[in-house]
Amino acid sequence: MPSINQLKQSFKENDNIVFLMVDVDADVEKSTAFMAENKYDLPVYIPISDIPRDYLGDAIPNTVIIGKNGDMIARMEGGRDYTRSEMVDGLKELIESD
């Protein structure tokens, strides 16, 4: 969570990217409290219907990158360091090309 929060902060001035945290356990109060307690600037949402298997996969956490046209660009299972240059550069490239 700290690295995805840092990633979001690095794109704070860019209106062409949105970060959404989806609570698949549907306990938004607990998730929101966790975000506040850790001072993360990450909005938490709960799905109103089932998440398609293509998006959810078999692991939590799960990162999905969706382009402006709604197509899934990438899905990555498990935790990772979101501040790595490959992630930042890849998102910048996507923003510029989309």
What's this, in brief?
It holds the Pfam family Thioredoxin_8. It comes from Olivibacter ginsenosidimutans. The chain is an alpha+beta fold.
Topology (elements, then pairings):
Layout: H1 2-10, E1 21-22, H2 28-37, E2 44-45, H3 53-56, E3 62-66, E4 72-77, H4 85-97
Parallel strand pairs: 1-2
Antiparallel strand pairs: 3-4
Tally of separate helices: 4
By CATH's scheme, which homologous superfamily applies?
Glutaredoxin
Shape, principal axes of CA atoms:
globular
Number of domains: 1
Subunit arrangement of the protein: single chain
Strand order of the largest sheet: 1-2
Number of strands: 4
Helix and strand sequence:
HEHEHEEH
Instruction: Note poorly predicted spans.
Output: none
**What is the CATH top level name?**
Alpha Beta
What is the alpha-carbon Rg in Å?
Answer: 14 Å
Which percent band covers the strand fraction?
A: 15-25%
**CA-CA gap between termini:** 26 Å
> Would you give the CATH topology?
Glutaredoxin
Going by helix content, strand content and strand pairing, the class is: alpha+beta
User: So, CATH architecture?
Assistant: 3-Layer(aba) Sandwich
In percent, how helical is the residue content?
25-40%
Mean pLDDT: 88
The main β sheet shows up as: 2 strands, parallel
Domain Thioredoxin-like fold: 1-71
Organism: Olivibacter ginsenosidimutans
Pfam families: Thioredoxin_8
Protein name: Thioredoxin-like fold domain-containing protein
